[in-house]
Amino acid sequence: MATTNTEIPTLDGNGTIPAYVARPEGTPRGAIIVQQEIFGVDAGIRKKADGWAAKGYLAVAPDTFWRQQPGVQLDADKPEEFQQAIELMMQHDFDLGIRDIEAVIHWVRREQGVPKVGLVGYCMGGRVAYMTATRTDIDASVGFYGVMIDQMLGEKHAIAKPLMLHIPKADHFVDAEAQKAIHAGLDDHSKVTLYDYEGLDHGFAAEIGSRRDEAGATLAEERTVAFFAEHLG
To answer: Count H helices, E strands: the chain?
Structure first.
């Protein structure tokens, strides 16, 4: 099945970003960009987008790897596909990726007429959520188990709009030292809210596969819903 249903122009106009778009009934209360993990715009990400649309938001899930391998859907529970996903992330140009996010923000505001835009991202997308908060004028961002944020704290001064990060304490991709650095760097930032999740691992809010922790995912999603309701409407 096709993972995307919409094409969004890049900032330079030389290409189009494939995206899965889910529309609410009636006028959107705001828009939410659903930033994928390393596994593509898979059934889980599309389910997240559909969930936001059901809550009244225009939901847009761009295909991050469209320049490398458009339409990729990989299974986190299959080691060889997990490795393929890691390789796609390693080859991904994050700076260019943020320009793509900016293009999506412009498209939402200008072409869709929705002024308030948020972003929620998972794993690699959690890192993108942080970068979006530091490098764009997005209205609110949420990152779930973002990787490598501890290495990007030099950009924290640029965070001008609300950012929420969900941090599982037993994340085997973001160790205790990295988590400590994130807290040390961001705890006193007026725009940043950090939540720790004791005993939970990377991927605890995934919609599909074996990584999900129901209680943790429910709590984090409730906090995210309230956060966007406050900052987007």
So the answer is: 6, 8
Where are the domains positioned within the chain? 6-231
Element (DSSP H or E) covering residue 95: helix 94-106
CA-only gyration radius of the chain, Å: 16
pTM over 0.90: yes
Q: Are 232 and 221 in contact (CB under 8 A)?
A: no
H or E element in which residue 35 lies = strand 30-35
Catalytic residue ranges: 171, 202
Residues 6+ apart with CB under 8 A from 198: 169
In contact, 166 and 200? CB cutoff 8 Å: no
Residues 217 and 11: their CA atoms lie apart, in Å, by: 34
Question: What is the Cα–Cα distance from 174 to 176, expressed in whole angstroms?
Answer: 7
Q: How many CB atoms lie within 10 A of CB 158?
A: 11
Contacts of 12 (CB under 8 A, 6+ apart): none
Beta-carbon neighbour count of residue 201 at 10 Å?
A: 16
Distance in angstroms (rounded) separating the CA atoms of residues 160 and 183 = 18
- At 57, give phi and psi (nearest 5°): -100, 150
Q: Are 193 and 163 in contact (CB under 8 A)?
A: yes
Q: What pLDDT digit, counting tens, does each position of 32-67 carry?
A: 999 999 999 999 999 999 999 999 999 999 999 999
Structure confidence by residue, pLDDT tens digits, 77-96: 999 999 999 999 999 999 99
> Which numeric CATH code is attached to 6-231?
3.40.50.1820
